[in-house]
Design a protein that fits this description.
Elements lengths: L1 H24 E6 L14 E6 L12 E5 L7 E8 L4 E4 L4 E3 L2 E2 L27 E3 L4 E5 L9 H4 L2 E2 L3 E9 L10 E4 L3
Parallel strand pairs: 1-12
Antiparallel strand pairs: 1-2, 2-11, 3-4, 3-11, 4-9, 5-6, 5-8, 6-7, 9-10
Amino acid sequence: MRRSFTWLTLLAAIACAAAILRGLAGPACVIGNTRCMAPTLREGDVFTEKPFDFKRDPLKRFQIITFRSPIISGKCWVMRVVGLPGERVMVSKDSLFINGVEVAQRQLPDAIKGKAWLPAMLSDSNHSPQWELTDDEVFVVGDNLDISNDSRTWGPLKVSSIVGLVSRKMPKEYLWVPFFKKGQAVD
């Protein structure tokens, strides 16, 4: 009798630990059309995702986040933050400007260095679009700037749409974890 109680307690403790870990930094899997985040994330990649709390988790420039799609209901997308709340973001053919200052190529993550920032539909014009972000907006882009459907197309993202912070890629063997959650990245 005593032995079964110990095993039952151990199983309950493991279930509680799994639930707690799931809430703190659960694994997630990229599924669907992931071309917009290539080469950083590809279909089937597994990463850890920490639930986002704006008051507790200050956003950092170039951080990868998961968020509810602003244009397709029920979809969760994965992209990179380039503009933070309260900033002015401008893109030209091959440069990103924050508050009027060009972001140096050496400061950019490798995945977006040397890429064209202006969406293809505006590349033939002399127009350099800019966005004034409010205190509850961020500017996100996919790492594959040539094809990504992101803030350059549909505008700033509301901070309230952010679901989680991507912390690191994990080996694909983590797909078996019973409490893992699937996220989607689309372009």
